[in-house]
């Protein structure tokens, strides 16, 4: 049986009955209707793969003009619909014109069942092939930034990191939902990608979605997609991130930033494993592995009724708590050397080591920006260095900055620390949001959210 939904449009009840009785044994679903005027409603409610369309509806008509009109209408909704035209009047010129106008095939009535099935089978393969190509195009467009950037590997020998890696290897082969917790810059995306890379889905899509940068008005259309005409700028159908990640892994970063209404919508998708595009009513099944991350205290937010408990239960089958860099000891030097080698290669320099003074500075710095800040510091140091080693001066960790950094208590609440970092960045750049966001490793939208959250 073909995994396809076939829509048959014909004004002859006998034709509809005959087609239904035969095709219901051959395909997943058969939908019939007598008038092409029902096309819009049927296509908006059902995920149709193949359309069998009669060419004449008015009594005595045989020129096929109606069929060509409705063919054009269907393809204006989605140019990738597979349409097979049907007529009782054999006409080579009409068949050629129909194919030129976008029809996939042409069949004469009454048909032979074997011929009809062969035509439907070929159309089904074409539809599936078109879907795969379209999906790959959308994935390529959505992931271009990540594909060109690449991903870092997990680097570290600290006990906490080794324990996390051991847990990761146990969890990755399963489809369990994973929640990754930790301060900004601790490497949550790196761990998410490592889980994906060690999973059964490693050859499928890894879809990263920064929820902190999504405007609330764009949340549904970005994650769940939209139909043509759903809103002013919706000029074509577009699948959302969940559809694009079908078969692979979707990583929802900064999930703690979602408002309660958006949490409810996300929960519904996770529970039902279906998405409904804006402007449509039909549900589309999605099969994704879910990984989420946040630096916010979700349990405290549940107690304050700012995060749904049922959503938290859904996303945290397994929790990974990433330690801040200041608590990883000599991992600081391992990471520093890793970044030094990477950026030396990128900028075509032959830098071989860190000076002893540079190592001491790195070990004694508190790293409020964690691994991300260390990465930025080493990139700048490689660029500024003139010799074969990185000096203390190349790091540009000024005494003032160093003193301010060391004044941060180790046990300061994450939220207080984050607020202080945001305020410092804004003050440093005299209110320039773009520069402050870049220094913090955030998008402008994510920084605005924090400004509002902390009342800065």
UniProtKB/TrEMBL annotation:
| Species per Swiss-Prot/TrEMBL record | Pedobacter miscanthi
Question: Domain Response regulatory spans what residues?
Answer: 5-124
Is DNA-binding given among the entry's keywords? yes
CDD domains, alphabetized = AAA
* Keyword hit for Transcription regulation: yes
What lineage is on file? Bacteria, Pseudomonadati, Bacteroidota, Sphingobacteriia, Sphingobacteriales
Q: Which PROSITE patterns match?
A: RESPONSE_REGULATORY, SIGMA54_INTERACT_2, SIGMA54_INTERACT_3, SIGMA54_INTERACT_4
Q: What protein name does the entry list?
A: Sigma-54-dependent Fis family transcriptional regulator
Q: Which InterPro entries match?
A: AAA+_ATPase, AAA_lid_NorR, CheY-like_superfamily, Homeodomain-like_sf, HTH_Fis, P-loop_NTPase, Sig_transdc_resp-reg_receiver, Sigma_54_int
Q: Name one GO biological process term.
A: regulation of DNA-templated transcription
Keywords in UniProt for this one?
A: Activator, ATP-binding, DNA-binding, Nucleotide-binding, Phosphoprotein, Transcription, Transcription regulation
């Amino acid at each position: 049986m073909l995994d396809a939904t076939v829509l048959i449009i014909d004004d002859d009840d006998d034709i509809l009955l005959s087609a239904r009785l035969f095709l219901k044994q051959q395909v997943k679903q058969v939908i019939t209707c007598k008038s092409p005027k029902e096309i819009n409603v049927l296509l908006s409610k059902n995920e149709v793969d193949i359309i069998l369309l009669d060419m004449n509806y008015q009594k005595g008509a045989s020129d096929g003009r109606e069929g060509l009109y409705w063919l054009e209408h269907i393809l204006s909704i989605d140019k990738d619909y597979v349409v097979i035209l049907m007529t009782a009047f054999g006409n080579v010129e009409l068949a050629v014109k129909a194919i030129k106008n976008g029809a996939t095939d042409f069949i004469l009535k009454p048909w032979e069942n074997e011929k009809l099935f062969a035509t439907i089978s070929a159309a089904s393969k074409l539809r599936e092939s078109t879907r795969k190509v379209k999906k790959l195009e959308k994935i390529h467009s959505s992931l271009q930034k990540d594909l060109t950037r690449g991903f870092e590997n997990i680097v570290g020998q600290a006990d906490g990191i080794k324990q996390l890696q051991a847990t990761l290897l146990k969890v990755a082969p399963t489809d369990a939902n994973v929640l990754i917790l930790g301060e900004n810059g601790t490497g949550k995306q790196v761990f998410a990608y490592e889980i994906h890379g060690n999973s059964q889905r490693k050859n499928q899509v890894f879809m990263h979605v920064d929820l902190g940068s999504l405007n609330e008005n764009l949340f549904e259309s970005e994650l769940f997609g939209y139909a043509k005409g759903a809103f002013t700028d919706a000029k074509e159908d577009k699948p959302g991130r969940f559809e694009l990640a079908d078969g692979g892994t979707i990583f929802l970063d900064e999930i703690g930033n979602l408002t309660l209404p958006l949490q409810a919508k996300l929960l519904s998708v996770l529970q039902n494993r279906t998405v409904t595009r804006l402007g449509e009513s039909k549900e589309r099944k999605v099969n994704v592995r879910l990984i989420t991350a946040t630096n916010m205290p979700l349990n405290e937010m549940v107690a304050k009724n700012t995060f749904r408990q049922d959503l938290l239960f859904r996303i945290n089958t397994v929790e990974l708590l990433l330690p801040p860099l200041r608590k990883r000891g000599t991992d600081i030097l391992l990471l520093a050397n890793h970044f030094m080698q990477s950026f030396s290669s990128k900028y075509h320099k032959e830098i071989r080591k860190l000076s002893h003074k540079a190592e001491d500075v790195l070990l004694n710095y508190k790293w409020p920006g964690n691994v991300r800040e260390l990465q930025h510091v080493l990139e700048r140091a490689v660029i500024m260095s003139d010799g074969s080693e990185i000096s203390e001066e190349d790091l540009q960790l000024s005494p003032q900055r160093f003193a301010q950094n060391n004044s941060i208590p180790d046990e300061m609440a994450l939220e207080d620390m984050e607020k202080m970092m945001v305020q410092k960045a804004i003050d440093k750049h005299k209110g320039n949001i773009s520069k402050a966001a870049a220094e913090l490793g955030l998008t402008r939208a994510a920084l605005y959210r924090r400004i509002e959250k902390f009342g800065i």
